[in-house]
Amino acid sequence: MRNVTIKNFRIQDFAGSGVIGIGTERLTVNAVKAVDDEEYGVASFLGRKTVIAESTATGAEEAGLYIGDSPHSQSRISGNSAFGNGDGLLIRDSTDVTVSRNALTDNCVGLLAASTQGASSGRLDIRHNKVHRNTEACPAQEIVPQRSGMGIAIAGSFAVRVHGNDVRDNRPTGPTAASGGIVVVSTAALGGADPQDVQVTRNTALNNEAADLVWDLTGSGIVFKNNRKRTSIPPGLD
Asked: What gap in Å lies between CA 197 and CA 9, rounded to an integer?
């Protein structure tokens, strides 16, 4: 299906997802409120040129906003608010996604970009988002481990730019595979990949636990530079 726009709807209390696109091209979701839907708030699978903008997703058990299984997606997620979900925004096994000016708060993870099928997630531009107070705790789901207290997590992804984001007060409240403000880790043990060519620059990351910047020392081409932070694991990340 091509050239579909969903605009100015409130979609609440569905047993499945609020808005879901499968195999679409040029799906636009604008000014939608997805509230307390059981699975995803707004989700796109196998999509290309998806736009999710100026929308709100809250109360989803999985992710409030989701792009999945979408190679070469050329998608944009901007100006949204996702709070009180499992994950605020999940990009899984997808490439060519721009994420900007979103508010991702009070979830288990604010933003998770994950490869679960080899190096399948990458070429991501993540900039100028507010990622605060993601302190909820989520149980393990399928191949996704327990998670809590992560702001922005780059998990096994490649060619990622994380720039100019405000990431504060993300702390775990339950068991978690990792935690911190901006986290770069491998998913190779889960069938994914090591991170490659990740640039974390000019972000503000403060009051996060276990640290403001976290890297598990896997992968190559990982750069932390000119970030405003107080703590890092390992020490010395800039």
From this structure: 39
- Output the CA angle 132-128-58, nearest 5 degrees: 45
Q: Which amino acid is at 12?
A: Q
Q: Compute the C-alpha angle 63/210/139, nearest 5°.
A: 35
89-142 pLDDT, tens per residue? Answer: 999 999 999 999 999 999 999 999 999 999 999 999 999 999 999 999 999 987
Break the chain into its structural domains and give their ranges: 61-233
What is 61-233's CATH topology? Pectate Lyase C-like (2.160.20)
Dihedral sign from CA coordinates of 101, 35, 151, 178: negative
Angstrom distance (rounded) from CA 15 to CA 35: 11
Enumerate the β-bridge partners of residue 148.
137
> Which residue has 């696109």 as its token pair?
21
Q: Is 172 helix (H, G, I), strand (E, B) or coil?
A: coil
